[in-house]
Design goal:
Blueprint: E1 4-11, E2 16-21, E3 29-31, H1 34-47, E4 51-56, E5 62-68
Parallel strand pairs: 1-4
Antiparallel strand pairs: 1-2, 2-3, 4-5
C-alpha cells in the first residue's frame, strides 16, 4: 500500500494555509492558520495510514515531517 503524503503549505493568494495531497494540484482544504491546517492534516494522515504530514514554512522550506505507520 502506497503512503499518502499530506503537505501543509502557505497559500500566497489569500494568506491562508492549505493541505495538499502529494501529486495533486488542488488543495484538499484551506485554513486561516497554520496550526489549524496542521491539526487537520495530522488527523487525515492518522486515518489514512500509512501516511506522512510534511509541514512547510512560509518560504516553502520543509519545517517538519510526521510519519504514520500501519502498526501505529
Amino acid at each position: 500500500m502506497e503512503a499518502k503524503i499530506y503537505h501543509v503549505v502557505p497559500n500566497e493568494d489569500n494568506n491562508r494555509w492549505d493541505i495538499k495531497l502529494e501529486g495533486r494540484d488542488h488543495s484538499e482544504k484551506t485554513f486561516d492558520t497554520k496550526d489549524a491546517a496542521t491539526d487537520e492534516a495530522k488527523k487525515l494522515a492518522d486515518e489514512a495510514r500509512p501516511s506522512q504530514v510534511v509541514i512547510h514554512r512560509e518560504n516553502g522550506e520543509v519545517q517538519d515531517v510526521s510519519k504514520y505507520s500501519i502498526d501505529g
